[in-house]
Design a protein that fits this description.
221 residues; Arp2/3 complex 21 kDa subunit ARPC3; 2 strands; 3% strand; globular; Thia_Transptr_ThiT; transmembrane; transmembrane helix
Length: 221
């Protein structure tokens, strides 16, 4: 297990070394998130940064509990993005987006597949960064659904632009390619979303958010 992790990290470093534009794209995206956080006057205190690190680590562990794996990438995991959603509600969507971005980078290093800088963004940091969108919604179920819909978009774009060759013959161009990319990516994301919604239905939500962030204000109904 440890050797496989080291091997994945080595592959990721090699892939990024050979694609310096991918590194530049990741840095630019991270800078944009930090700028957004500064505009919203969110203070990245050492305590909050520690919680972000814990959420990323927990998401990475859950991401390795794979319930179903798609043949050409993508898998159903044990609610791996739940820690990102929790921070998005406890501290705001901007913190959730930063957490998702960092988890996307960890996910990149755990199983790198780089063909283009834009593809790197579409397949790794952006989908998980968009999970932070859930924090814009007052209802946790609506937020989780919206976040997974947003996550689907970059995966579909990546499939259409960079992986058309994997589509069946006759579906490699035009609207058929879009249909193929959607039908490939949607099932595993629907599986992920179903697990998240099931967990959200049973957790004591407001108490959980207060435990994560003592300053969290429970919405008045």
């Amino acid at each position: 297990m440890f050797l496989s992790i080291l091997e994945s990290f080595g592959e990721a470093f090699a892939a990024l070394r050979d694609n310096p534009m991918a590194i530049a794209a990741l840095i630019i995206l991270l800078g944009g998130i930090v700028f957004l956080i500064s505009l919203r006057k969110v203070k990245l205190t050492p305590q909050l940064m520690a919680k972000i690190a814990m959420a990323v680590a927990l998401s990475a562990v859950l991401n390795n509990i794979i319930l179903y794996k798609m043949p050409q990438g993508g898998s159903v995991t044990l609610a791996s993005v739940l820690p990102i959603i929790i921070l998005s509600y406890a501290y705001g969507p901007e913190v959730g987006m930063l957490t998702g971005f960092l988890f996307g980078i960890v996910n990149l290093f755990m199983g790198p597949y780089i063909v283009h800088p834009i593809q790197t963004l579409l397949d790794y940091p952006i989908p998980f960064m968009l999970i932070g969108v859930s924090g814009f919604f007052s209802n946790r179920f609506a937020g989780a659904v919206a976040a997974h819909i947003m996550r689907l978009i970059p995966h579909v774009l990546s499939g259409v632009v960079f992986f058309a060759e994997y589509a069946p013959e006759g579906m490699q161009t035009g609207s058929a390619l879009w249909i193929y990319s959607i039908t490939y990516n949607a099932p595993f994301l629907l599986g992920e979303m179903a697990i998240i919604l099931a967990v959200l239905a049973f957790v004591p939500w407001n108490r959980l958010l207060k435990a994560v962030n003592p300053g969290y204000k429970v919405p008045v109904k």
